[in-house]
Amino acid sequence: MNFPMHIVAVGGLVTNDKDEILLIRDERRGWIFPGGQVEVGESLIEALIREIKEECGVAVKPRHLVGLYSNTSMKKGYNGIEMIPTIVNIDFICDYICGELTTSNESLEVRWFSREEAKKIVTFQKYIERFDNMLNYNGSIHICAFKEPFEWIDKMVIF
User: Fold this and answer.
1) Of 54, 109, 116, 148, which residue is the catalytic one?
2) Is residue 109 annotated as a catalytic residue, yes or no?
3) CATH classification at residue 132
């Protein structure tokens, strides 16, 4: 029997008291919301808080679960050799608590944007619908799956 192997990752839409959206600019994907992989022994919430702190320099409080997104395809990693297993992304809405915006080796730029500006600059295909679901959160949870080349294969909304 082959045991399934998945990478688990978290993402967060961070808003401040002006209802601005925190985004990072990544070399490969352009402007995106912060997030990353859950490390061994870490909870989802711990990973979310850590990733946002590492990438942006700020502390956050997770408020709502928005979606679960599964990439069902294995693909070559950044080195072009190793295969990356399927990825499960779990997205949250977070409140900004404190801290100064800082870049990291994972973020070329970090900035606050109005909702209108943010909608225009998040253009990485795999992030657009996830980002839209966070921006338009209404209490429902999105459960979706896609495969490579990018194609949605399953979508469900739980109210």
Assistant:
1) 109
2) yes
3) 3.90.79.10
